[in-house]
# Entry
Amino acid sequence: MRCTAILLFAAGAMLAGCASAEGQYPSLAVRDVERVQGRFEPIESAPLDVPEVQVDLAGGLDARLASLLTQARAAHEEFVASTPAAANRAAAASGAAIGSDAWAAAQVALADLDSIRSRTAIALGDLDILYIAASVQAEERGAIDVVRERVIAIVSEEDEALAQLRARVR
# Structure
């Protein structure tokens, strides 16, 4: 009921605005200053200057990609080898008070795993630089994509393992 009254009031107010005397409002016709005059010419622009991205490709792209994948896999193997000890410390710290010896030992073990993971992430960062350089210079990046996806999968696996261990310690 109240909503209907508000709608009727609003409709009446709008109709009252339409019922005003003619000649009080300016014409909506196009004025002289609004008419198009002259010619519009496109502005000449300088070609886009794409800077070359410097990357270290000593030995070629394939050698660099193989080196980065080897670096990531080596760091991942160390991560996998260090995970059981960190998992034991995290299990011991489960439910322990923050600041306790078990909690501190678990934090140190998780920090060690983070450090190892960062070495895998460094390889991913270098792959990202190669990927961006190839994209900017409109070069083929298929080989970079393949290695980059493998390293992303490794980093994601390590991130998941760290998240699970951190969840135990809290």
Q: What stands out?
A: The chain has a mean pLDDT of 84.
